[in-house]
Design goal:
The protein contains four helices and eleven strands, in the order H-E-E-E-E-H-E-E-E-H-E-E-E-H-E. The longest helix has 9 residues. The protein is globular. It starts with 18 loop residues before the first helix and ends in an 11-residue tail after the last strand. The relative contact order is 0.15.
Length: about 210
């Protein structure tokens, strides 16, 4: 906005990744055999795009371990839902437990990966995701902070950032631009990124396989 001290940037009229494409690309980052919590929004779509050759034990804070993809029309069981109250499927060996136990799993360092939506990520990997800019009050402090801190990390909890324009790794030396969306250049992504990016001479397009 005028007068806020931020130079106005002109966004190129190029296609960006859809929510589903972001989820599909993020699914490729998950480790085989990992215990993974999916946050609300785009992360919640990831289970639909998990590569067939790997097994991931998705954890839901309402009390599921072994959550599968979202239920398709006709498969819905509304006693079997994720934390967003959306019907889901289960993988073989899935289990149910009390919500308090689910949060103990989050807080106890038992999750290998947490995939959370974020408003901002600092160049050191600090995550801002609990207060919408302009919202009144203190914001929604709670579950997401527990999950971020409990996934075998604490401050500087972000390792990888997947956006509608790029894949960026958080390293001690800074933010490493690993991939860019089709049709975009490293320079264009940098223009839209508040923190400096470290880019090689040739940055590949984002891969979906």
């Amino acid at each position: 906005m005028p007068g806020d001290g931020i130079q106005e940037r002109v966004t190129p009229a190029k296609p960006r990744l859809t929510r589903e494409q972001i989820a599909q690309r993020t699914a490729l980052e998950l480790p085989d055999g990992g215990y993974v919590n999916l946050g609300w929004g785009i992360p919640n779509l990831i289970a639909d795009y998990l590569p067939k050759e790997i097994t991931v034990y998705f954890h839901s804070e309402n009390g599921i371990l072994g959550m599968g993809r979202r239920a398709r029309p006709g498969e819905e069981d509304f006693d079997q839902v994720d934390a967003m109250k959306i019907p889901v499927t289960l993988i073989p060996g899935a289990s149910f437990f009390h919500q308090a136990d689910a949060h103990l799993m989050s807080r106890g360092g038992h999750l290998d990966v947490a995939v959370l939506g974020g408003f901002q990520v600092s160049e050191k990997g600090d995550l801002s995701n609990w207060k919408i800019p302009g919202a009144k009050g203190s914001g929604g402090i709670g579950g997401a902070m527990d999950i971020a801190a409990g996934a075998k990390t604490a401050l500087t909890c972000v390792d990888t950032i997947v956006t509608d324009l790029a894949v960026i790794d958080v390293k001690p030396e800074g933010l490493i631009l690993r991939e860019v969306a089709r049709g975009w250049t490293a320079e264009e992504v940098q223009e839209l990124t508040g923190a400096p990016l470290i880019a090689g001479q040739r940055i590949p397009e984002m891969s979906f396989a």
